[in-house]
UniProtKB/TrEMBL annotation:
Protein name, UniProt field: Pyridoxal 5'-phosphate synthase subunit PdxT
Keywords: Glutamine amidotransferase, Hydrolase, Lyase, Pyridoxal phosphate
SUPFAM superfamilies per the UniProt record, alphabetical: Class I glutamine amidotransferase-like
Classification via InterPro entries: Class_I_gatase-like, PdxT/SNO, PdxT/SNO_CS
Source organism of this protein record: Mycolicibacillus koreensis
Function: Catalyzes the hydrolysis of glutamine to glutamate and ammonia as part of the biosynthesis of pyridoxal 5'-phosphate. The resulting ammonia molecule is channeled to the active site of PdxS.
Reaction(s) catalysed (UniProt annotation): L-glutamine + H2O = L-glutamate + NH4(+); aldehydo-D-ribose 5-phosphate + D-glyceraldehyde 3-phosphate + L-glutamine = pyridoxal 5'-phosphate + L-glutamate + phosphate + 3 H2O + H(+)
């Protein structure tokens, strides 16, 4: 089939890096900032950044409900870090007031924001990820971890005893940022999910 059209939600965060990684693995990446763009994509990446800000902007632009609806209808999605937080069904330490991360659903899981805490605000590791032959270079930046997964969720990797990569159906989420490394296997996995090959 022709290259799948994969959107990167481009409200805030590291959009350009995901566009580059998607191109590198043969997808046709586009930015998504409005309803028409959202409706046009075969799958969507929610990038890392600040989940409270992305939540606020989704709401302001009237995109939160359409995005929730597309996820509920089975649109493939991949969320990294802040994106993982937004794809959860429940968020702990979500913030307050207008600075609150609101879950979109997509994965039946409870995620804790900024879970790794001050001492290890940001760190790198080589993680073994289910289905991959070699460890993945994983960069964590004020990352969340997963505290609960539902029965339909597969845990693909753990760090500090907590799930940091998960999949439920066509939705993938990682606490870490593969887009800032030269290792594009997570993006390749997502493209394979979108095209029905994984
Ligand atoms: N701590 C950020 C948040 O809560 C996530 C950090 C990131 O995406 N690198 O959204």
């Amino acid at each position: 089939m022709s290259a799948p059209r994969i959107g990167v939600l481009a409200l805030q965060g590291d959009v350009r890096e995901h566009l580059g990684a998607l191109s590198a693995v043969g997808a046709d990446p586009v930015t998504v900032r409005n309803r028409a763009e959202l409706d046009s994509v075969d799958g969507l990446i929610l990038p890392g950044g600040e989940s409270t800000t992305i939540s606020y902007l989704l709401d302001e632009l009237g995109l939160a409900d359409p995005l929730r609806a597309r996820l509920a209808a089975g649109m493939p999605a991949y969320g990294a870090c802040a994106g993982m937080i937004l794809l959860a069904s429940e968020i702990l330490d979500a913030g307050s007031g207008t600075r609150v991360a609101v879950p979109l659903g997509g994965v039946d899981m409870t995620v804790r924001r900024n879970a790794f805490g001050r001492q290890v605000d940001s760190f790198e590791d080589y993680l073994s990820v289910a289905g991959f032959d070699d460890p993945v270079h994983a960069v964590f930046i004020r990352a969340p971890w997963v505290e609960r997964v539902g029965a339909d969720v597969t845990v693909l990797a753990r760090a500090a005893g907590h799930p940091v990569a998960v999949r439920q159906g066509a939705v993938l989420a990682t606490s870490f940022h593969p887009e800032v490394t030269a290792d594009h296997r997570i993006h390749a996995l997502f493209v394979a999910i979108v095209t029905g090959r994984a």
